[in-house]
Amino acid sequence: MSDLIDVLQVAHVVPAIADKLKATYHVHRASPGDTIAPDLAPKIRAIVAGGVAPASLLAQLPKLEIIASASVGYDGIGVTEAGARNIPVTHTPNVLNDDVADLAIALMVMTARGLATADKYVRDGQWVAKGNMKLARTVSGKKLGIVGLGRIGKDIARRAEAMNMTISYTNRRPVEGVPYKFVSSLLDLARDNDFIILIASAGPDATKMINKDVIEALGPDGILINVSRGRVVDEAALVQALKSGKLGGAALDVFEDEPNVPAELMAMDNVVLTPHLGSSTIETRTAMGQLALDNLAAWFAGRPLLTEVPETQAARRVAK
Ligand code: 8YV
Description:
By secondary structure, the chain is α/β, with parallel strands linked by helices. It has helices at about 15-25, 55-60, 80-85, 95-115, 115-125, 125-130, 150-160, 185-190, 210-220, 235-245, 265, 280-300, 310-320; strands at about 5-10, 25-30, 45-50, 50-55, 65-70, 75, 90, 145, 165-170, 180, 195-200, 225, 250, 270-275. It has two domains: about 5-95 and about 280-320, 3-Layer(aba) Sandwich (Rossmann fold), CATH 3.40.50.720; about 95-275, Rossmann fold (3-Layer(aba) Sandwich).
């Protein structure tokens, strides 16, 4: 019997964080969709998640007090169910902003300049066999539309400013104090820009908001970059638009059914595909894991939580 608090870890964390977790808690590993053994379930007081902890998992844990997620997004967590049980959910904003913003810019440049194809061109010996590659498209000085001007969206915009891009954005509401043009309609944003970067926090209302009309409004020279969530884009409509030439190109770090990627996308050379890499550096994953640990430590020491999500904060205020 251990005196340590029982914690259910349903996330991959870097080894340094896993070691710290094990040094402080009695850690049990599971996957978010698992059935938890009946002798273990009533002991669990905390979940360490990586953005996914569904209501079906929470329902099995009667003594659950807190969910600390090492992710900024929490659309895969049963936040409503947690809030209704007075259970706080914490996430890890800010510490991943730079990495996600870097990736968004990198994907935009990679796609416009054909860099994934170019790398393959050299490796496959095509440079020697066929000579120079076909010409690509310029990024600097072009027009960028950002969908979601939150913490990461602003960091993307700052980088794009340094590339002399003209930046406009759409968001739930206009953001104060930024020099970028607010556009309320997604269709108008797509029509008026060369590139669209998706970094909106993906609530249920965002599902498939990038539909056929929006994709086609971006047009045959337009490029769509998604570093938010796969379900924000109508993937079938995207594939169709790319196939028919109604959209110029796409760079996708996230997909509707990860890790499954439509075979049709894999066959296209105007598309860059990455396996959900937004925050996946050692530095950032360590910082995210540490923030999740700090939230757990604060909770069990009776101190205020550092980064509770607004939904459970509000539910817990009402319950008081
Ligand atoms: C990771 C993410 O998928 O933070 C998020 O919301 O999408 C990514 O950084 C997540 O941290 C799970 O490890």
